[in-house]
Amino acid sequence: MTSLLHIDSSVRAASNENPGHNSISKNIAIQFTEAWRKVHTTNQYIYRDVGMHPPEFINQNWIGAVFTPEERQTENQRVLLELSDKLIQEVAQADIIVISSPMYNYGMPAHLKAWFDQIIRINKTFDFDLSRGDFPLKPLFSGKTLVIITSSGEFGFEKGGIREEHGHLVPHLRTLSKYLGVDTIYEIAAEYQEFGDKRHTKSLNDAMERARKLGQELANKVGSPFRE
């Protein structure tokens, strides 16, 4: 069975009374997941909207629970880590992860960062060994594919673009993705939203079409068990 984990992070809904408020990133992600699910109708699909239903932010007590050996954890500490355990389990069983995100203030939404903070956890998604020298952290998962879907008001955040130094969303997602066990990454981006001109229309249409094609392509690719 192939498992798809779909994470949306916009605080906007995909559909609103005023269509001008519809989430662009969520609607592009819908194109991907619908194309994928048409092929994999019986496989597992896990969905979380962390924009509408954000995970709790970690705090001092959470960190204390994480660094307490499991056999010594109190009942309160175990309860505190229940959400983290659940989110990590969802990542663990996923073969493909789709993350859709708008760019907020040139980076990721706080709600999406909260999701990552709940998941990137010692002895659960990475281990730590000083014998590795300057790179003691090692991810524990591998073999997964990540589809990054983004929307932005401006443009030119790609490598070599006019705003390359301002774009912290995709680089951050790429850095954190290794702790999700990601080996392969695809990117789909819609830009120019604030300009509202023909460039935005073309960028959005191209992103929608790219999402549909990639969803079908990856679905056909994983017709047999995805993980080796």
Terminal residue distance: 13 Å
The general outline is globular
Q: Which structural category fits the helices and strands?
A: alpha/beta
- Fourth-level CATH superfamily: Flavodoxin domain
Low-pLDDT parts are 224-228
Specify the biggest β-sheet. Answer: 5 strands, parallel
Q: What percentage of the residues does DSSP assign to strands (E)?
A: 15-25%
CATH topology title: Rossmann fold
Level-2 CATH architecture: 3-Layer(aba) Sandwich
Biggest sheet, spatial arrangement of strands: 2-1-3-6-7
Q: Total number of helical segments?
A: 7
Overall helicity: 25-40%
User: Could you give the order of the helices and strands?
Assistant: EHEHHHEHEEEHEH
Task: Tell me the Rg in angstroms.
Answer: 18 Å
The CATH class designation is Alpha Beta
The count of β-strands is: 7
Number of domains: 1
Mean pLDDT over the full residue set: 94
Subunit structure: Homodimer.
Enzyme class: oxidoreductase
Family: Belongs to the azoreductase type 1 family.
Keywords: Flavoprotein, FMN, NAD, Oxidoreductase
Describe this structure in words.
- It is built from seven helices and seven strands, in the order βαβαααβαβββαβα.
- Strands 2-1-3-6-7 form a five-stranded parallel sheet, with helices on both faces. The protein has a two-stranded antiparallel ribbon with strand order 4-5.
- 37% of the residues lie in helices and 18% in strands.
- It starts with a strand and ends in a 7-residue tail after the last helix.
- It has helices at 24-39, 60-66, 75-80, 82-93, 110-119, 169-177, 198-221, and strands spanning 3-8, 44-49, 96-102, 126-128, 137-139, 144-151, 182-190.
- The protein is α/β, with parallel strands linked by helices and 228 residues long.
- It has a single domain (3-221), classed as Rossmann fold (3-Layer(aba) Sandwich), CATH 3.40.50.
- The protein is globular, with a radius of gyration of 18 Å.
- β6 (144-151), α6 (169-177) and β7 form a beta-alpha-beta unit.
